[in-house]
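Before a colleague's protein record goes any further, I have to sign it off. My question to you is simply how this chain folds and whether the tokens agree. I do not need a full report, just your reasoning and any doubts. This is what I was given:
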Amino acid sequence: MSLVSTGGHSLASGPLPNFRTTPPPRRRPSLPYLKTPRAAIVESRPVRVPPATRDNGNGGLVLVSAGAAGGGGGGGGSRAEDMQAEARAMARAVDAPVFNPELIASKYGRRPIEVVRRMLEILTAIGSFGLKLWLDERNGVFDQNKKVRATELRQIFTRLGPTFVKLGQGLSTRPDICPPEFLEELSELQDDLPTFPDEEAFACIERELGVSLDSIYSTITPSPVAAASLGQVYKAKLKNSGQTVAVKVQRPGIEKAIGLDFYLIRGLGGLINKYVDFITSDVVALIDEFVFRVYQELNYVQEGQNARRFKKLYADKEDIMVPDIFWEYTSGKVLTMEWVEGVKLNQQEAIEGQGLKVLDLVNTGIQCSLRQLLEYGYFHADPHPGNLLATPEGKLAFLDFGMMSETPEEARFAIIGHVVHLVNRDYEAMAQDYYALKFLSPDVDVTPIVPALQNFFDDALNYTVSELNFKTLVDGLGAVFYQYPFNVPAYYALILRSLTVLEGLALYADPNFKVLAASYPYFAKRLLTDPNPYLRDALVELLFKDGRFRWARLENLLEQGSKDRDFSAKDALQPVLKLLLAPDGEELRRLVVKEAVYVSEAVVLTSVVDTYNSIPTVLRPPILNGNGRGPLPMTDAEVLRIREFRDLVVRVWGLLQTSEDFDPALFQPILQVLQQPEARSLGGRVIGGVTQRLAARLLQQVLRTPPPVPT
């Protein structure tokens, strides 16, 4: 089965219903056709990509090449040729639509009849459907009518147009929200939408590229292999290279179709801002951010640049595939990209039939998404099943780069730090994180927020990581956000959407799958290996508490971090060890000395006890003071506690040693510390500390009163 994406949508080859009542006459291009069955698409959304634009000095924006650095073009030319082809594509897209809320408001503000007509159309469709659900529930026939109602809802969304198709696509990936009947029906919105006439699509290609169809392609499918709300895709073969490509053509009149809906939605957002007090976020700002991205999706050159940037950042992993772009055959309304063979990620049987495992692919998607969100900050904001394909080689292919977004650098580290504070149950620090995340303005007092966080997370953290559901956390945080003056940035809403969609995909394959459990190895790896000062301090905070080193926590981090394929034992703990060399590392050096004393004492004491226990009972002489209970003044519970501590340290050392790239030179910074002027006494302090503790125990042994001799 072959799949591609058409602007937020996916293609699965298979017959499509004919949505035209009477087939219009078609102007056939003079070339043979590929005999490919019809298929359909599911759509994606655009996103503002700051690096792809710059100010032109006159208050406007100019597109800047983001793909040139991604390597040669799809045609296989040199980098210079590819950059020139991209520049020509940008010139062809100079008139691409740009979101301007004032212009849209001015346009539809003068058309009250058109606005009222559309409003009534939406209210009538949604209202009548809601009434049917209410009557079904009241009459006790809700369950038996689920299939019928699901079909009706899909038809309503399709009839209402692109805006509502997007809504249906989002719902189709949430098995925890929608019943199975609705999921199955709404998933058709990903690859089963009406097409527009082929002659219009072919005319658009010739008009946009400025050449005849038969001069570009040796073959092209007579009908689209996929159809989305924003466009439809044809499979073709380039005449000059023979390479198979996907040609996405924008649906005519799409800007008008979505413009009015967004005008109405924006008006609704204004009413919410004005009259709904419990929603503290700027709803209009969130809507504007989303609409801005949708309008960017209408510029296919921008989507091509997004794809190139994404490929450069993330396709370095052998299990990730990103199609290349053919700039010479791309414009604002036509996008030509490498053809991808694959199966949609929610088609479990088809994937397993190829000898692949869905959960392996989902895990690949999660790890890649974590890199997107927290490493480079540039992420795919619409990872629904139609945009994620399993290739026959076992790779995960990303499609449809219309909707992208970025996580600010400060926020990336703050998110990881937030996870550390959550694990430590440091709710005051969690509340402070919201300043860095830009959730709260600096003048807001977080003191009353701390108890709310504690009340929710104390319950949530009673679950293990493997039991904790991402949606549970999102819902709980949402309840906290509603109570206080939080202003959630638009990028955060897209992050939540991206992760909840991935969790929804995983639930198709395994109802017990938890995104948080699958994500933890990545967080552990970043904490152990990332040299960023913020994350280094977070790791120190995680490992030290009340002046003691938490070996169990380090053991857990090493166990989890080693599950990440990019984990390197050679890099583990390097950030913390290097801090020992820093001028501001005195506090850490003091803690290290203290912990080294504890470890040394545990090793010595357990060695003494083990040696004593190895002596046959009849040969064990009374130790000192005539006491035959043992060599040290310790209870059995004390001996057990110290032995467990020693074993824990040994296990941590074993975890490091068993790693393939482990190098004892990892701890070279400790030796360097001993040579530093400000820390030359470190070794002496450790030896002195151990000596003092052992001497104290020996003195206790000497002064201990012998047990009475039984009569």
